[in-house]
C-alpha cells in the first residue's frame, strides 16, 4: 500500500513538473515598433511615478520605460491638416445629422482616404514569440491589456522570424479603464509552432474613427495567454494611440 | 524671246499637265509632258524629262536654273498645241493676259497649303503642350513586395489606376492630372487587406519639372 502511495505521489510530481515545464514552453523574444510613422524613445521609470496608482506594480517596472511616439513627417502633417479641414467642413455640413450606427460608414464614405491614412498610421507593435519545443502547437486567441494611465503629458526593424507573413490584429483598447485588466478577444486563434510567432498588434483607442489624428499617450502592458496555460506579460510601455 | 512670255508658257504647260494627271507630282508632270510629246508623230525629235524638270524648278519652284533654250520652248509650245513659239505669240495674244491669273492661283494655292499645314502643326503643338501641362505619366511603385490595388480618389469617386504585382515588378505607369492627387490602396494578397488600407496625398508636377516616382507608404 505504501508503495502505491509512493507511485501516485511520484506520478503527481511528474505531471506537475510536466505542466510547469509546459508553462515555460513559450518565450517572448522581442517587442518592437512595426510602423514608419513612429519613433521609439525611452524615459526613466521615475517619470511615471505619479501616473501609476498601484505602488506594488510600479516597483516591478524596469528602470527604463520605452515609449512609442507618433512622429509624422512634413508630408504626413500636411495630409493630416488637409483631412482636419475636410472633417470640419463635413461636420458643419452634417451638423446634428450623424446617427451613431452610421458613424463609421459615414466617415468611411466621405473621408475614405483620410480614414485609410488614419488606419495606416496607427501604432503597430510586433511581439515575437519563440517556442522551445518544436513538435507542439499552441494557440493564442485573446490578450489582456492593463492600462496604467492615459493622456500622459510628456514633452517630449529588425525581423526575428522569417514568417511568410505576420499575424495581424486590431486591438481596440478602452483607455478610460485605468488600473484594471481588460480582456480583448482576437479575431482568430494564432498558432505558435516551430519557428515561432510574430504577432502584430495595431492599437486603437476607439472602435470608430472620429475624424481626428490627435493621439493620446497611454502607459500599458499586454499579457498573452496561450493554450498551454502560459501567460506572458510584456514590459510596461507607453504608446501614442 | 521675252522672259516673261517664256515664264507664262511654262506655267500654261505645267497647268495643262497637272489637269491631265490624277497624282500631279513634279516627276509625274515632267514625265507626262515628255511622254506626250514623244507619242505625237507630228513632233520631230524628243525632249528629255530632265530638261522639263529644270524648267519646272526654274518657274514653279523658283530655283536658280538656267533659261530654257529656244528648242525647249518650241517643244513646250507644241505640247500646248501650237507649232512653235512664234505661233504661240501670234495665236494667244488675247489669252496671255489670263496667264497672270493662273500664276496667282498657283501661288495662292501654295500659300493656302502652307497656311493650313502651319495651322495644323500649331494646333497639334498647342494640344500636346496642354496635354503635357495638365497631365503627366507617372510611375507608381511600392517597396513592399505585395500585390496592391491603387485607386485615385476624386471627390467621392474612386477610379482604379492599376495593380502592383510581381508580374510588373511592383511598378506601373499611369496618367494623372497635375496638382494634388489622392491615392487609396490596399493589399489584395492579404485576406484582411481591405481592413488595413493606405492613402497618399501627392503633388503631380508639370512635365518640365523634375519629379520622383511615387512610392506608396508601407501598409
Topology:
The complex is a heterodimer of chains A (241) and B (219).
Chain A (H helix, E strand, L loop, with lengths): L1 H21 L3 E8 L4 E7 L10 H5 L4 E7 L3 H20 L9 H8 L1 H9 L3 E8 L6 E13 L16 E6 L8 E12 L4 E8 L12 E10 L4 E3 L3 E4 L1
Parallel strand pairs in A: 3-11, 6-8
Antiparallel strand pairs in A: 1-4, 2-3, 4-8, 5-7, 5-9, 9-10, 9-11
Chain B lengths: L2 H18 L5 H14 L9 H11 L10 H10 L5 H7 L4 H39 E8 L5 E7 L2 E8 L6 E7 L1 E9 L10 E7 L9 E3 L3
Summed up, what is this model?
The complex is a heterodimer of chains A (241) and B (219). With 241 residues, chain A is of the alpha+beta class.
Describe the 3D structure:
- The complex is a heterodimer of chains A (241) and B (219).
- With 241 residues, chain A is of the alpha+beta class.
- Chain A has two domains: 26-72 and 123-241, no CATH class; 73-120.
- Helix content of chain A is 26%, strand content 36%.
- In chain A, the strands form two sheets. In chain A, strands 2, 3, 5, 7, 9, 10 and 11 form a seven-stranded mixed beta sheet that branches.
- Chain B has six helices and seven strands, in the order H-H-H-H-H-H-E-E-E-E-E-E-E.
- The N and C termini of chain B lie far apart (90 Å).
- In chain B, strand 2 and strand 3 form a beta hairpin.
- Chain B is rod-shaped, with a radius of gyration of 34 Å.
- The model of chain B has no long low-confidence stretch (mean pLDDT 86).
- Chain B has two domains: 3-93, no CATH class; 136-216, PapC, C-terminal domain (Immunoglobulin-like).
- With 219 residues, chain B is an alpha+beta fold.
- Chains A and B meet through helix 3 and helix 5 of A and strand 5 and strand 6 of B.
